Every structure is written in structure tokens, then in C-alpha cells.
Amino acid sequence: MPTSTRRTQQERRDQAEAALLAAAAELVVEQGVRSLTLARVGERAGYSRGIVTHHFGAKQTLVERLARATQAGFVPGLGGLAPGLDRLLRLLDGYLGELGSLGVFNQAFLLLWAEAATQPELTPIFRERDEAFRADLREDVEAGIADGTINPEASAGDVAVAVVGQLRGIALQRLLDPESVDTEQLRRSVTGFWHRALRAPAT
Predict the structure, then answer these.
(1) How far apart are CA 52 and CA 57, in angstroms?
(2) What does the alpha-carbon distance between residue 184 and residue 129 come to, in Å, rounded to a whole number?
(3) How confident is the model at residue 1 (pLDDT cuts 50, 70, 90)?
(4) Which of the residues 6, 195, 197, 200 has an alpha carbon 20 to 30 A from that of 21?
(5) pTM for this predicted structure
């Protein structure tokens, strides 16, 4: 019985946190990060401010959790893939594919990321998230060089910066002017570009 009770409490806690993060994402999309307060998040989600404070403590923690939640799983199906050229290309294809139907969490992430350049409380959060993204890309390039599928002259660091910049830039354009960004066409052209740019020369 105690184990069952604890499990139920944890499920309730997880459900409440998911609802609060969803409410926070909606507020960011609708009114911007400046509108985000613990009280407003609680009101939107149907919880008291005390519950929000219990889960997050302060707005900074809420924003950090929201940043992680909005970026986690942006491209599904990559967890079991070994680092290398194939994973990198699948990431590109999957990322651009997800932009075809931007959900509220993805929109919130992009808006928060753009705000991070001028909002000191956001800067370290998104600097860390971008560095984690670049680290995965560097790992892919280094693994591809090691297994012979990527040109050994490729710079892992340069590729990582360029890919993150390209994907984020396309995403923001998609957010601002959806009709001008053909994500299905971009899936083919961008993925094809990086395949040609990175593949090892034929021997």
C-alpha cells in the first residue's frame, strides 16, 4: 500500500508539473517571457501560486525547466543511434521535419532562445543548451572522421556552429513567416548539402 501511495503521489506531481510547464509555454508564446510569473502560470494551469512555488521555487528555475522541457525530444528517434554522419543527417532531417508543425513547446523554445541575447536571466540557460547541442554535433563529426565516413579535413567545431546557426535561423523564419518556409523542400536540400559537404572523398 505505501508503495502504491508513493507512486500515485509521484504521478500527481508529474502531472502537475507537466500542466504548469504547458501553461508557461503558452504564456511565452502568447505574451512573451516578460509576462511569465509564478502566479500567472498557476492561474493558467488551474493551480495555486503555492503549488507553482512548491514545484519551481522561483521564476528562474521555472524558465530553466521550461527551456529543458521545450528542447528535450525535439527530434525523436535519435537516442539509440551511434554518433556519426548518419545520426547528424537524421538530426537535420528530423529537426526540419518538426518545424513543419511547430507546437507550443517548440515555439516557446525559439522565442526564449531569441530573447536570451538581451535577457541576462536567460543567457546562461540557453548558452548551456546550445553548447550541449554543439557538443553532440562535434561528437558526430569526430565519430564520422574516425570511421571514415566524414572528410578528415572537416572541423568539428566549425560544423557544429554552422549547423546550429542554420537550424535556429530557419526555425525563427518559420516562426515569423510560416508560408515562406517550405520545410519539406528544406529537409531534402539542407540534408543533401551537409551530406555532400561532409562525406569523405571517394578513394
Answers:
(1) 7
(2) 26
(3) very low
(4) 6
(5) 0.83
